[in-house]
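[Automated response] Your request has been received and processed.

Submitted sequence:
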Amino acid sequence: MKKLRILVLMHEDLVPPKSLEGYSGKEILEWKTEFDVVSTLGEIGHDTLPLGVRDDLSMIRKALDDYKPHVTFNLLEEFHGVGAYDQHVVGYLELKRQCYTGCNPRGLMLARDKALSKKILTYHRVPTPKFIVFPMRKQIRRPQRLAFPLLVKSLVQDASLGISQASIVHNDDKLVERVRFIHEQVQSDAIAEEYIEGRELYVSVLGNRRLQTFPVWEMLFTKAPDDMPNIATERVKWDAEYQKKIGIETRAAEDLPPGAAERIAKLCKRIYRMLSMSGYGRMDLRLTADGRIYVLEANPNPNLSYGEDFAESAAKIGISFEVLLQRIINLGTRYQAEWKA
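Generated structure:
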């Protein structure tokens, strides 16, 4: 394996220390992905330069000019504090003719806009919940075709930001209340979509043109009350004590209907291509009790932490974390951006 110079982009608050010694589990959680990636790249023989970025492109330009990386490992999820701006940073890397890991600008734009991605999926007759977008500072009025219950969330934010049990609404008053919460607290447009009762499934996808899917993964709520909707809220994703309380477990899905795993894998590859994604991604789906599959979201550049769903589902089929990161790097160096034509 050739030793590479790898620039690792991340938020400036998440630049990890060289060792975990002396840090609490809560502190480590903040920058665990960044630590896992940087330390593992070093362990497999690459030279890395972690670079913390907030709102200054000149820092990236200087690092590219001085360090001359073979590839940039992109862990940025925002720029100027705006999640949707991550696509512009990747666009800047392309303008600089720099190889990078993860999704291309077009894929980031299409997948991050939940309404636009749903319109594309609907055009291709992929089952996805019906929805309505409520822009900020506009009247909140539900069309009659959209029946309750509805799930209200941010149109553009990921990581379950702003999602709680209160996000599922059953009448117009609660709908207005929750949409205003997203507008005021999350500071983004809101989307309200049909709430689909069923199993919470995830499928990881790796590749540019030739795609590989990992085993269907499932989030289980083993200690939750029977009447509690099984949705990945902000607390479910990020509150360790709450996870223990309601028994959150993620593992390979068991007892799927005959042929479901194959159908889901084929569907996820189709979606990946429809949304022009590259590098690696994760699809969020619902499987209803009668076997119907609904696509909820497509997520470019999902969490790469060791022990989290993407890496765990890869490990299930024998792909170690070290091999996974190397494959992501290889995909980054081989991606056929327009400047390579």
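Summary generated for your ticket: The longest helix spans residues 25-43. The two ends are 26 Å apart (CA to CA).
If you did not submit this request, please reply to this message.
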